# Entry
Amino acid sequence: MAELIQQGAEAKVFALSFYGRDAIAKERFPKTYRHPILDKKLTARRVVQEARCLFRCQQAGIDTPTVYFIDTNLNTIYMERIEGRTVKSFLIEHSGNPALVDDLAHKIGKALAALHGINIIHGDLTTSNLFIRDSNQSLVLIDFGLSYHSSLIEDKAVDLYVLERAFLSTHPNSEVMFEKIVQVYTKKSRDGKQIFAKLEDVTVKEPCHK
Amino acid sequence: MSLIQSQPLELPEQTAAVHMALYSSVINASDLFQRLVARDTSLQMALLNAETIMDPFQIMVAAHRAARAEQLGQLRTHNVHSELVFDLSPNNNIREALTRFGISSGSTHVLAVRVGGSQEQFAQEIAEIVEGRQEPIEQLSKYTNMETVRKYYKVPANLKSPEDVQHSVIGSMALKGHS
Ligand SMILES: Nc1ncnc2c1ncn2[C@@H]1O[C@H](COP(=O)(O)OP(=O)(O)O)[C@@H](O)[C@H]1O
# Structure
C-alpha cells in the first residue's frame, strides 16, 4: 500500500494513506558509519526535532504539513501529504509570467520572515522544498530534516543564502525574483535589515571559500 | 442497521478494528463514571466526553498511538482504552487527561470507543451500558465544544478556521511527550 517516493541518503519517503487521509511516512535510518548506539540516539533525536519544527511552524500559522504520528521505534514521522506542486515546477512553467512570479515571491518572502520570526532555521531551502497547495495556492514549507532553533542573524542570513544559491542554480534569470523575496522578507522581519546586510556579506565572501 | 462506525487499525501485524458509538441525551453518565473509577472490568471501552472530539480522525490518531504502545509493551496506563483517553491529551498528565477527555458525572454527549473485537459484540454490549439516544457518528461535530477544544489543546488564537484548529489539535496530540 505504501509507495516509496524517495530513497535518500538518510531517509526513505513513502506515500500512503493514514486513516483515510493522504499521508507521507518519512523514515530515517542511521548513518551506518557511525557508532551504532550513538547513532540510534542521534537518529531518534533528529526525527523528533523535525516533527517539533513542523509543529512549531504550524502553531505560528506558517503552512506546513500536519504531523499525524511519530513512531519513535521506527524513526518514522507520519504527516499530511500536501496536494500541490513544487515551486520548482511552478517556476519552470510560469517563469515568463511576471505577475504570477511576483505574487509567489511575495508569499515566499512573507513565509520566510514568519519562519525566522519564530527562530526556526530551515536548513535546506530549495525550490523543491517549497510547495504550492492546489486547494488555496498557499505556500507550504516542507522537509524540516535539517531544521533547528536559532535566533542568530548569521544563521538566518545563511538560510536565505542557501535559497539564493538554489534559485540561481535551478532557475535562470531568477535574480529579480530573489531580490523581491528578500525585499518582502526584509520588510516583514524584525531584524530584516541586519539579516539583509549579513546576507550581502555572506554573498560577497563566498568565492574565497571555494 | 448499526450506527456504529468501525475502522481497522493501520498498524503492521495488527488487524483489530476501532469501533465508535455516539450518544446524546445520556442519562446514566454518573453511574458509568462510578464504574470507571471503580475499574469495573466489564467496561472494555473508552467512554469519552464527546464535546472534546472534533471528528473520528482525532480518535483514530489516539487509537493508533495507544495500540502501537500496547504492541511495543510501552503502555503508560492500565490498558489500551485508558491509553486512548490519555493519548487524546496534549500533555503527560494522566489524571487530567481522564477528567478532561473521559466521561464525567454530568456528561450528556458520550462517545464510546472499543479497540478490537467485532462490531456486533460491541453493539450488543454498548446497548446495555449506555442509556441515551444513539446517533450516527457524522453528528459528532454537532456536539463539539470548540471553546473547550481550544482550551484543552491550547490552540493559538491566530488559528481560526475549523481546519486550522483541527490540524493544531492533531499536531498537539502527535507531539505529546516530544516537545
Ligand atoms: N508532506 C509532504 N507532502 C507532499 N510531498 C512531500 C511531503 N514530504 C515530502 N514530500 C515529497 O518527498 C520528497 C522528499 O521528502 P523530504 O522531506 O524532502 O526528504 P529528504 O529530507 O530525504 O529530502 C520531497 O521533495 C517531496 O517531493
User: Anything to note?
Assistant: The interface with chain B takes residues 17-21, 48, 51-52, 54-55, 58-61, 66-73, 80 of chain A (CB under 8 Å). Residues 130 and 141 of chain A are 5 Å apart (CA to CA).
